[in-house]
Design brief:
Layout: H1 8-54, E1 59-65, H2 75-91, E2 96-100, H3 122-134, H4 137-143, E3 173-178, E4 192-194, E5 201-203, E6 212-219, E7 227-232, H5 236-241, E8 248-252, H6 255-260, E9 270-280, E10 291-295, H7 301-308, E11 323-326, H8 338-355
The structure holds S-adenosylmethionine.
Residues 274-276, 278, 296-297, 299-302, 326-328, 331, 335-338, 341 line the site of S-adenosylmethionine.
């Protein structure tokens, strides 16, 4: 049979039709993709709103002098005391611990960590132990080389906070350390991190090895060799899911630096001082705040810190705070120790701080 010959006009018409069909198919595909993208964005936004409703948007800090360790009689007791401060902070969801030098004469650099083989003085040792205890167990070897200050830290009671996860625990977020492991050439960017699971996680960005990161895991049950995760701010678990994510620690060289070096833009908008000479905490009414700090004194009380601080003109601690509270009116013992005061104060204050949000 002879093939039918098409005229030029017919050929052009077929071609035009074919082009139109191709264009229509492409338009349909584009529309589908656009709709899918819009639906995904909407879903993500709704999820964000939903999650932000159960998040916690305020922070609570405590401040205390590291000199409290210097009154302990042995290295074991020094470590135990630091452990008590860490446990109290964890129990009450404290987000930041500020260690201040009540003598305003700090000489040691708290970031100095390796090489110093003798016990640090109170501020430094408290700084080291608090950081050690906050760090998830599976990351400690990476971040804490041997140091005399930490000699008994491994024996201390664990904090058992939500980001101290076992391999078998499921959590959307995990703390991790970036690894010195090259990623596949097919990927444009990314780094590997160990987040305490059998499989490493491929992160969405390049980060130099040895950095501590907070990771939101994309999928956890997968047959793939590696997991995928997104690096997020360490505040995200608290702000979006209301999960307590441990505390940060900083050292202030004097009492005034507790306030002037606040990590929050605009500083703390609520400062509470504690003393047996304060006002009964039960009569204290807290108003709305964003970032609170509760300040404790050492053996000689907050007066000693004020006296040593040349930046503070007043010698009356109550002038420094919105509230100056007595947390245990009618106390039986003549003195309440700072580590005890943290527990007592936070058990009265925490519900008040929460109630205004
Ligand atoms: C050993 S006490 C200091 C006692 C010191 N003699 C004084 O007069 O303040 C250490 C810290 O615990 C806290 N504290 C002790 N008893 C308290 C109380 N009844 N109310 C509030 N805070 C108290 C304060 O922060 C105090 O600076």
């Amino acid at each position: 049979m002879r093939e039918k010959k098409f005229s030029n006009t017919e050929r052009k018409a077929v071609k035009r039709k074919w082009r139109e069909e191709k264009l229509l198919a492409q338009m349909k595909k584009d529309r589908q993709l656009r709709l899918e993208k819009e639906a995904k964005t909407k879903e993500e936004e709704e999820e964000k709103i939903k999650r932000s409703r159960c998040g916690r948007h305020y922070t609570v800090a405590i401040a205390l002098p590291g000199s409290i360790l210097d009154n302990a009689q042995s290295m074991e007791l020094r470590a135990y005391l630091a452990g008590q401060v860490a446990r109290a902070a964890a129990i009450f969801n404290v987000d930041e611990i500020v260690i201040f030098d009540e003598t305003s004469q700090a000489k040691q650099d708290p970031s100095e960590f390796s090489g110093l083989k003798k016990p640090g003085h109170g501020n430094t040792q408290l700084f080291h132990i608090l950081q050690y205890l906050e760090c998830p167990q599976y990351l400690r070897k990476m971040f804490f080389p041997y140091h005399q200050d930490l000699k008994y830290a491994g024996l201390l009671n664990p904090l058992d906070i939500p980001h101290h996860l076992r391999e078998s625990d499921f959590c959307e977020y995990r703390e991790g350390v970036t690894l010195n492991k090259p990623i596949s050439a097919k990927k444009e960017k990314g780094s590997y991190a160990n987040v305490g699971l059998k499989k490493d996680v491929i992160l969405n960005m390049n980060i130099k090895p040895g950095q501590r990161v907070t990771v939101r895991l994309k999928e956890q049950d997968t047959d793939k060799k590696n997991l995928a995760g997104v690096v997020v701010s360490p505040t995200e678990p608290r702000e979006t899911a209301g999960i307590y994510w441990g505390y940060t620690v900083r050292v202030a060289s004097c009492l005034s630096e507790v306030f002037t070096e606040s990590p929050h833009e605009g500083g703390y908008d609520l400062a509470i001082g504690t003393s047996e000479r304060g006002r009964n905490v039960e009569h204290t009414e807290i108003s709305q705040f964003q970032h609170a700090v509760v300040v404790f004194g050492g053996l000689k009380g907050l007066e000693a810190s004020l006296e040593a601080d040349s930046n503070i003109q007043s010698d009356d601690p109550s002038e420094l705070f919105q509230h100056y509270v007595n947390i245990c009116p009618g106390q039986g013992s003549r003195t309440i120790r700072t580590e005890e005061a943290i527990l007592i104060a936070m058990s009265s204050l925490a519900p008040k701080l929460k109630a205004v949000h």
